[in-house]
Amino acid sequence: MSNPFYQQLSPTPTPKWLNFFLALMTIATLASAFFPQFTPLFGLSEEGIDRFFYWQWLSYALFEPSSGGLSFSLIIQLGFSLYLLWIFGRSVIDRLGPARFISLFLGSAMIGGLAAWGLLKTFHTPLVFIDPRPALYGCMFAWTILNANATVLLFFAVPFNACRALYVFLGISLLIDLSHGNWPAGVALLAALAYAYLFTLISCQMLSPFSFMHPLEKIIIRASSRLKRWPGKSEQVYHSSKIYDIRSGKPVLDDEQFMDAMLTRISLYGEESLSPEDRKRMEQISARKRKK
Known about the structure:
This protein is mainly alpha-helical. The chain has two domains: 5-204, Rhomboid-like (Rhomboid-like fold, Up-down Bundle), CATH 1.20.1540; 235-292, no CATH class. The protein has helices at residues 16-34, 38-42, 46-50, 56-59, 72-96, 98-123, 133-146, 162-179, 183-204, 214-229, 255-269, 276-291; strands at 5-6, 150-154, 158-161. It has a three-stranded mixed β-sheet. α1 packs antiparallel against α5, α5 packs across α6 and α6 packs antiparallel against α9. It is elongated and about 70 Å long. 31% of the residues are buried.
């Protein structure tokens, strides 16, 4: 397996769609701070959905909650959320493309919103729910699956494995929600993560870093690949002899990366999924390793 590496999160100019979401979150947060009537209209509530404000299932995740007026804590909170979206969003767009990023970001928000609304509806909670974390953490979770071996600087100083850093963020967030009795936030966050997990698994046709989930993931990937080929297509999911780095779109030339990709392909689809070129290169790599 490839060794951990330091992932450069922002090597390219900010994509226009990411700029759009960054600007949208900034404008919406400032609007909620200066115009109190903005919050009940775009925050998620049982009353709002009953009044057919269906956009609330999505809009609740596009701005930060304000306790009234522009405050220093609100600026810090907004800045941190924008920073998370900026660094992880750029990397996800580089690897998945703008269309999939939009589906991931908005889908995580929507699924989280539906889950939170279900809880509000069940217990008739008179709460206006606002929380950008379902969309943000959905992007973070997808990035973690795509960069499982990456090392990130937690709190800008402490090196952490990407998966462990995610556990820290999730653990702190859920602990805060539970300690404050904010069940809709916890439920929304978990639902968004479940969506991001399945979305990344299916769209990228790859296993996650969670090895205990691999048997189930193989079933999901096989089923989704059959649906993509339906009806009556017989070609293999991997029809090209080249393996591409989903981050850059360039062919993978590194032997270790190539072997990792081939072993994952074999575990999912069997040895018959390998092309003659794949087998030849694997034999060449094995021969070189034996000579060392």
